[in-house]
Amino acid sequence: MRRAYFKANWIAALLVAPQLLIIFVFFYWPASQALYWSLTLEQPWGGGNTWVGFENFRTLLSDAYYWNSVRVSFVFAIASTALAMSMALVLALFADRQLRGYKFFRVGMIWPYAIAAPAVGLAFRFVFNPHAGILSYINEVLPGFWDPTVNGTQAVIMVVVAGAWKSIAYNFIFFLAALQSIPRSLIEASAMDGAGPMRRMRDLQLPLIAPTFFFILVINITDSFTDSFGIVDVLTGGGPARATDLLVYKIYADGFRGFDYSGAAAQSVILMVLVMALTFVQFRYIERRVHYT
Amino acid sequence: MADISIRNVAKSYGKDSIMQGVNLEIRNREFVVILGPSGCGKSTLLRMIAGLEAITAGEIAIAGQVVNDLEPRQRGCAMVFQNYALYPHMTVAENIGYALKVAGVGRAERRAAVERVAQSVGLNEFLDRRPGQLSGGQRQRVAMARAIIREPRVFLFDEPLSNLDAKLRVQMRHEIRRIHNRIEATSVFVTHDQHEGMTLADRLVVMNKGTIEQVGTPEEIYDHPASVYVGGFIGSPAMNFLPGQVSAARAAVVLGDGQVLDLPRDVATAADGQLVQVGLRPEQLTIVAPGTAELQARVDFVEELGSGRLYHLLVEDLPLTVLSPDKHALRDGDAVGVTVRPDALHLFGAESGRRIDARGARVAAPQVVPA
Ligand SMILES: Nc1ncnc2c1ncn2[C@@H]1O[C@H](COP(=O)(O)OP(=O)(O)OP(=O)(O)O)[C@@H](O)[C@H]1O
Ligand SMILES: [Mg+2]
């Protein structure tokens, strides 16, 4: 690789400054504040804070509600990622078999990703409404069959579906682009070698899009931990009985409804570390296995 | 038995017709080379035989069975792609053995077959490498091995040697011919390199703009090109063309500047008065002292080739090249004579571009298969 270099360092500094500033204002500063708060006890009505060390974390880790939230978050992350990725992959495989001008779809399909999470939540609130949504017809036949405001499992399903829907289109576009970038002659060579469409999918297409698959996996998992607040807030408010009390939601609820700033800060520090650790592990152990040559 | 019949095949993409009424009979175990300039439809024809491209009209039969609607894997063809199309995530051994794996051949048997084939193309040491870790020539051999291992009825090659250096190309050419003979397959080989085509082919098919210009042995095509196009395309340096008019009375063709080249009387009679192009191959002309031969010319410039010289002459204002092993001491502008062997004079209709023979008719036209 050729390295560009600047004669004067101040030009380089000037060029990266805006980005550094943004990263500082929106990440390092709040993150360090959160870290500071998590190690102190903050008075809800102001009036200073006292240093307590790891006390906040200790309290948190002995809190059954917190562990419930961790469990629910993992269930949500795994389920919504699996659903979003598998649906997107199936759609992309079908589309790839027919499509040449996929660029047209790219624009149309990216929109859901651009919709804010609360809007998605709102849409699904109608879709899954036990009295007026699509499943309300079942309720007419079997009264009480579908009611996510009471049934915790159904509430989780609802949140998972809404969360997955938001990223299916995004994933689809990446999968389709990856599939379309596989040289046509490879597919033809395997057709000459006797492989049918299913076989080609398994032996060629899936292994060859592995790098994209990995990338999408990281994005989806990270997103489902950090970007699901709006959906939960609008759809379930964390209920019923904390069945959908995701970590991001709990931070908000504890901090701004419960006025436990220090506890919320500790939670966000843990979430931050968790997401970083997950990303690190994925890069370290999965990425290595998906690149050739 | 795997003869291939191509009957009245046409191909169009939407409204663009890129191939019209192609007829060709390829006999069992024959090595046929399809030759033509870039974009003339060689690959398309090959891919229609393979089943990778739909046939717009007409039909293709392999071993007597019409294959228009068969999937590639049902046609029993193996193909070597121009860019090799190796599976980048598989090792060389997996690449070569993939067809057998798909066919459900057991692991041990597969391994043995892969090793045997790899041996025959000299790839043993590389079986555990990925294609990305091979040189161009090695990749090309993997592509060959992958095709050979299936022992196909029909071998299809799409310019498989075009990415190799000159020496390796000759080597692989011999290897391909040897493999063809050994596994007794029918081979169709596409190239735009006439030298490669001439040396490999039992029969050559010369294509131009989606049609077949001529089919014949390399010798037939060299000695009796069916059209101006074939004459100019086959042979290097290229054939010279001089315009003229046939005169039966003088049993000759009269060139534009009034010079006269003798013709056999029957040819002259058959084509009396016709405007023609006279085709002369540079290597079949001889330079002699001025005034002692039928054709008078001037030296334009001379190119040294090492083994001989290429003399660029001018007949009036028209270029005429002569290839000769003799090193004449000539300077630019010198007057020379050129002798033309009677059997080296090719006559083509100026209008039609088709060859004119003793009967004034076309010879060696593309074979037409009765429907
Ligand atoms: N998918 C397609 N859509 C439209 N036209 C096509 C398509 N594929 C090929 N063609 C056209 O068909 C003609 C023949 O193409 P083909 O690939 O058979 O040429 P070729 O003789 O193999 O040339 P080359 O020596 O460059 O490989 C070309 O003019 C090309 O532009
Ligand atoms: Mg081609």
Strands, helices and their partners?
The complex is a heterodimer of chains A (293) and B (371).
Chain A: H1 9-38, E1 40-42, E2 49-51, H2 55-61, H3 64-98, H4 103-114, H5 117-127, H6 136-141, H7 152-180, H8 184-192, H9 197-208, H10 210-226, H11 229-235, H12 247-257, H13 261-286
Antiparallel strand pairs in A: 1-2
Helix pairs in contact in A: 1-13, 2-13, 3-7, 3-10, 4-7, 5-7, 5-11, 7-10, 8-9, 10-13, 12-13
Chain B: E1 4-13, E2 16-26, E3 31-35, H1 42-50, E4 57-62, E5 65-66, E6 77-80, H2 92-102, H3 107-120, H4 136-148, E7 154-158, H5 166-183, E8 186-191, H6 194-200, E9 203-208, E10 211-216, H7 218-223, H8 228-233, E11 240-247, E12 252-255, E13 260-262, H9 265-270, E14 275-280, E15 285-288, E16 295-304, E17 309-315, E18 318-324, E19 335-340, E20 345-349
Parallel strand pairs in B: 3-8, 3-9, 6-7, 7-8
Antiparallel strand pairs in B: 1-2, 1-4, 4-5, 9-10, 11-12, 11-14, 12-13, 14-20, 15-19, 16-17, 16-19, 17-18
Helix pairs in contact in B: 2-3, 2-4, 4-5
The structure holds adenosine-5'-triphosphate (ATP) and magnesium ion.
Walk me through this protein's architecture.
- The complex is a heterodimer of chains A (293) and B (371).
- Chain A is mostly helical and 293 residues long.
- Chain A contains 13 helices and two strands; from the N terminus they run αββαααααααααααα.
- Chain A has one domain: MetI-like fold (Orthogonal Bundle).
- Helices cover 72% and strands 2% of the residues of chain A.
- Chain A has a two-stranded antiparallel ribbon.
- The two termini of chain A are 18 Å apart.
- Chain B folds into two domains: 225 residues, Rossmann fold, CATH 3.40.50; 121 residues, Nucleic acid-binding proteins (OB fold (Dihydrolipoamide Acetyltransferase, E2P)).
- In chain B, helix 2 packs parallel to helix 4.
- The C terminus of chain B is likely disordered.
- Chains A and B meet through helix 8 and helix 9 of A and strand 6 and helix 2 of B.
- Adenosine-5'-triphosphate binds next to strand 2 and helix 1 of chain B.
- The site of magnesium ion has 3 residues of chain B, from helix 1.
